[in-house]
Amino acid sequence: MLFQSIVTVREYERGLLYRDGKFVELLPPGRYSHWTWEHCRIDIVDIREISQTIEGQEILTSDKIGVRVTLIAQYRVVDPVTARHSVGDYVSRLYQDLQLTLREAITGRTLEELLKERDVLSGKIQEDVAPRVKKYGVELARVGVKDMVLPGTVRTVFLQEVEAELKGRASLVAARHEVAAARARANTAKLLQENPNILRMQELETLAQLASKSGNVLIIPGLHSLLSRDGANGPQAAPAETKQS
To answer: Given this model, what pLDDT does residue 116 score?
Structure first.
C-alpha cells in the first residue's frame, strides 16, 4: 500500500532532502510531498538566532582560587548543510567549545584580572570560538558573562575592601570640605580686618533683630559718631547694652 508524505518547511527553517540516503538539495520554505516508494526523507534545520546558557563549573584561576562563571551565547545556523553533515550535533559541539575555551581563559588569569576584565574575557572567548564554529556552519553573534560566583571567604574579603575604599573616599571628601571652610573663615577675617565698618554693620543688623522683639529696649552709645560724616575716624563706640523691660 502506497502512502504520500507531506512536509512543510517554515519561513525560519530550511529542509535537507535525502533520497536513498544521499543528500539531494537544500529546500527553501514551502510544502513538499513524496511517495513512500521514493525512499525520501526531509530533515528540518532551524536558522533562527538561538540563546544558550553555558553553565559554570568549578575552575581554578592562576592564583588558585575557585570560581564559577556562567556564559550566555547567541548564535545561528548560517549553513544548514555543513551544520548537519560536518558534526554529529552542532548544538552540543558549540557548548563544548565554549566550555573548554572558558576554562582555558580562566586558568590563565588571576581573580583580580577576572573581576576587572569581564568584558575582555567575553570578547576573548568569542574571538577564539567564532572561527571554530564557522567550520560547522554556525555563526557566533555574541558571548557574555552572565554571572561569576566567588567562594564565600573571597566575597567577604572583597566586600571589606569595598567598604574600606568607600570610607576612605568619605574621609577625603570631609577633609576637603574642612579645608574649604577654613579658607573661607580666613578670607572673612581678612576682609573684616581691612574693612572694620562691615563688622559694625553686622552688629547693627543683630541689634535691629533684637529690637524687633517685643519688650527689648536698646541703648547704643556713640551712635551719633557712626552716623556723622567723620564717624569712620571718630572714637570707637562702646558696646551696646540691652535691657529687658
So the answer is: 81
Contacts 24+ apart (CB under 8 A), 235-242: 237/200, 240/203, 240/207, 242/210, 242/216, 242/217, 242/218
For the record, the C-alpha cell of 157 comes out as 574579603
Count other C-beta atoms under 10 Å from residue 242's C-beta. 13
Please tell me the total number of residues recorded for the chain in this structure.
245
pLDDT, tens only, 150-163: 775 555 556 566 56
Q: What pLDDT digit, counting tens, does each position of 132-155 carry?
A: 999 999 999 999 988 888 775 555
Residue range 50-150, CATH number:
3.30.479.30
